[in-house]
Amino acid sequence: MRGHRKNWSGLLSVLAVWVVAACAQPQPQPVVDESPVPHKQAAEMFLAGYTHIAEKYIEKTPVAQLAMEGIRGLGSIDPALIVKRVENKIFLATSNVMPDAEPDAGPDEEPAYFKAPADDDIKGWAALTVKIWSEGRKASKELFNSSPEKLYEAVFDGALSKLDIYSRYSGLREATRNRARRDGFGGIGIRFKVSSKTVRITSIIKKTPAARSGLRVGDLILRVGSIPVTGLSARDVSDQLRGRIDSRVKLTVSRGSEPTPQKFILERHLIVTPTVKAKFNDGIVFMKISSFNQQTSRDLAKKIRHTRKVHVSKVRGVVLDLRGNPGGLLNQAIKIADLFLDHGKIVSTRGRHPESIQYYEASGRDIAQGLPLILLLDGRSASSSEVLAAALQDQGRAVIIGTTSFGKGTVQTVIRMPNNGEITLTWSRLYSPAGYVLHGLGLRPNFCTSGSSEMKQKDLFASVANENLVRRAYKTWRSTGFYEQTQRSKLRANCPAERRKEAIEVRAARNLLNNVELYARALELATFDAKKPVEEAIKVPNENKTKEPQ
User: Fold this and answer.
1) Global confidence as pTM
2) Choosing from 95, 167, 290, 383, which is the catalytic residue?
3) Domains of the chain, earliest start first
4) Could you confirm whether 291 is annotated as catalytic?
5) 432 with 438: CB under 8 angstroms?
6) Are 546 and 488 in contact (CB under 8 A)?
7) Catalytic position from the list 321, 338, 378, 394
8) Per-residue model confidence as pLDDT tens digits over 48-87
9) Which residue among the candidates 89, 291, 408, 432 is catalytic per the annotation?
10) Does the active-site annotation cover 394?
11) pLDDT tens per residue, range 314-357
């Protein structure tokens, strides 16, 4: 019986009628019905989610606010649902009033209403969310037929929507994939490309079941087990290939001109996607780090040790290419920084929850034994990439070439939910060894390559000619407060964050390693002097300053 949707401008007058009518009647009792979502399960989910968000989010947020946004999130399932709070009552109705209705006109049916729990009553708000969802199912076919995942996604997306862009909910399927990216997964070790009719193997990871089985790049997968792959999406094919570690999977494969398809039976092993590629050229170890997973630091250390063992005294420098690296596991960035530092701070994290306050120090080793170190950054180098770069720059261990980095300087904790989904929640900020907040600012490179695909070496390296100017620039960068958003934006504009794929940064790194004196000067100018600490970089904002963006 839904008609045209009512706009919010006329809702308050209608609500006034609702309030009078509703207050004259007893509060309706929750109705027990056969739901695709068990009420107890839903209550456990909402209680767990609201509790974790209230306790761990970086900024204190009232439970009532979280829950109201979560309840309003039901509108993503059925936009006709209207939820409104008037004092201590919460009203639920459908938008069945014509937009041009008279001010004193009321809806065809009186709205359901509920008494609001105390603002800090987490259990009460979780129970109320279930009650309102249950009541809404009476009036909404979409809500009535919604699956558990659809319900949880709607509520938690709503609850997290006003926090920050990095806090989010992932259902079981997406959460499983997230865990696989972080920790590895049961698979066979191939990459593939799906076209309209074929699934072609494009690469095979070394030392995996696929590499040992005899599969080849170019093979066409016809079936996974008994399931034909024709018409499946890349995600569906991936889901079929992955499974429990030590379980088996059978592939039917077509190869070249061979008339008969071949069958391969493979045992799934733990697959952790390689994130480090290394090459040695002209005395320089170039290492591309695409992201940070649980094996990144181990693989990088192994490749450096191997290169030094094979080439011995020929190694004269190391270049870590972090361009386009969006981050990943924080502990891996810390471990890599520790590989190159023999003392000093690496990073600290600070949030509202006691467990979010952490300090990390170098353990006293340098795998490169003092060899010159250069990092390449761009506008997509974020999060863990920035932690690594800040530690090495502040401690005078590396020179940075590229553009200002992304500026993602918050830490997210991952909370496993009762349904094995996840809430990823921002719970602390990252501080460089110099004490400044990385979030919203990023890293200032020693040599900026923004704005051009070609740059003469003398022009690029001229940026360190005026030593006093360079020192002041780094002091300003490190002392500008977190809430001074305008000033931070101006600092970033001096070397705009850009996506860099050109070879100019690589050439500049090679040329800099050929100029020992210039490298040493650039390194010294950007090193943080602990004897002259910058001001606390997260100043409390006054009334005239811009508050933290959400």
Assistant:
1) 0.78
2) 383
3) 8-163 (no CATH), 185-271 (2.30.42.10), 276-347+362-410+429-526 (3.90.226.10)
4) no
5) yes
6) no
7) 394
8) 999 999 999 999 999 999 999 999 999 999 999 889 899 9
9) 408
10) yes
11) 999 999 999 999 999 999 999 999 999 999 999 999 999 999 99
